[in-house]
Amino acid sequence: MCGIIGFVGSGEAAPVLLDGLKRLEYRGYDSAGVAVSGADGINMVKTIGKVEELVKKVHECDRLRGSCGIGHTRWATHGIPSDINAHPHMSEDGKFAVVHNGIIENFTALRSEFEQKGVKFQSETDTEVIVCLLAYYYDGDVKKAIMKTLSRLEGSYAIGILCADEPEKIYAAKVASPLIIGVGAGENFFASDITALVSHTKNVIDLDDGEIVEMTADSLVIYNHAGKPVEKPAKFVAWDIAAAEKNGYEHFMLKEIMEQPGALKATIEPRIKDGWIVFDDIDIDMTKFNRILITACGSAYYAGCVGRNVIETLCRIPVEAEVASELRYRHPLVDEKTLVIVVSQSGETADTIASMKECKKLGATTLAIVNVVGSTIAKLADNVIYTWAGPEIAVATTKGYTTQVAVLDMFAMWAAEKLGRISEEEYKSLLVDLMRLPERAQRALDLSSRVKKLADKYYDRSSLFFIGRNIDYSVCLEGSLKLKEISYIHSEAYAAGELKHGTIALIEPGRLVVALCCLEELFEKTVSNIEQVKARGAQVLGVALENNRRIFSEADDVLLVPVTNKLLVPVIEIIPLQLFAYYVARKNKCDIDKPKNLAKSVTVE
Questions:
Q1: Among the listed residues 574, 540, 517, 543, the one whose alpha carbon sits nearest the alpha carbon of residue 464
Q2: Is 315 a catalytic residue?
Q3: Catalytic residue among 2, 68, 132, 305
Q4: pLDDT, position 604
Q5: Which residue, 32, 25, 71, is CA-closest to 246?
Q6: pTM, rounded to two decimals
Q7: What structural domains does the chain harbor?
């Protein structure tokens, strides 16, 4: 999604805004801009392309002077990427400038209303109606104009506002889009993401939906939807700025792949107390549920597919995994006997939020598995388990996914024990393997020294397949997604047994098939599928446990992963596939951390 930042302080605003926009680049964007309020009114610079281009334009502009400003990185939704459609947007009279994340769902009707009043719109965006409303309602009272404007908007938004009549003040407001306030010494900020602020302050305030903030360099007032001041204490965010830096790695994605042993340790260890898994912050009576529904989008959904296997196996309760964008429109059959597990890295995924709201409305109990503390999903859910993966900057998730799977594994064990479906002996044995996941993740990295050579061998394939059975198939889904989203190579994941039901027609000489063979009880079945594709000329890259010698006689090339419990191996099995995707994309000179057409947090349908 887009990124926004606002600053008011004693120094020049433009350098602070540009630095913040650089730190927000990972969210995905196609244009960028800044506006600064000064003695001669509001001045604006914006451009299509990268923040680097914006920096050049700003340096060439001598009008961008002032200590109060707003900035934006835009990902095109309404209107093509262009300088005109880029944010900020300014009212015709020059009184207001606005940056906006989200979607104004009734913008067509509002635009038509103002066109009938004679307003000439400059852009194709939904955002421009916001500045029209502000200018229309402004009578000298900015807060009043903002409140009237917000009352007309339908949809989601995080908005930053400048008014030329108040050159040392900025305003911000939000509904259903992330926005945080940064509290500094003689300076204040707002941003869509903490990464834009941590080099300046670690004291932040989470805004709730409907709230408006009014900021100067030395003051900060938050108003509720009725315009009444509310007290909200700042909290300290323990994010080191180094966590948002590459620390010598060529890309954030590679850094985050390598961070997975540490991320898994941070996720698992604090929850093990006296030999048992303990979730301090959840209050769930598992005996009241006859069904579990996991819902999410993208990689989080694929984590849910792994979780479905593990929970069902250990708890012996029906579990479904549903894509949130489909579930929200499917009139789901959930009630008070359904536990809905909602998985999201950012906690701001629009379709997942909508699905959770629908399920809550129908009486379901909700459990969120998220990484970002204070996110929308975390606030809406009845119970929350945080993954504690730390900041993830690359658009393509890696440690976010593996920590989600680890939490689902822990939840499955916790729930099975509460239901009396697992013996103490089996529980303790599985717990030992769970606690060894961080070291086994490191072993998986150590075993992946050949991945780069294999990427060099296979990088030029135009299409390939991932195949596996049972829990291996669930991992195939994520492995395939990693490759396609950062290398732009067509890739499909198939349940290995389904190949013969049509898809095998696409197997031809030279086609690469990645075969996951880590589930030992189904190894022979997967070998049969390997033989079928090889008979048609395919090349096979096998992924198997490191004690498996037979795989070398079946596959053309092999990646090995450390031996662990079959229910936990997906956490480890994905690591060489992440590295394979990374090195294929690198060989193809792709923009790995910011893949085309993708955003880190998808907050629109």
A1: 540
A2: no
A3: 2
A4: 53
A5: 25
A6: 0.78
A7: 3-239 (3.60.20.10), 250-435 (3.40.50.10490), 440-591 (3.40.50.10490)
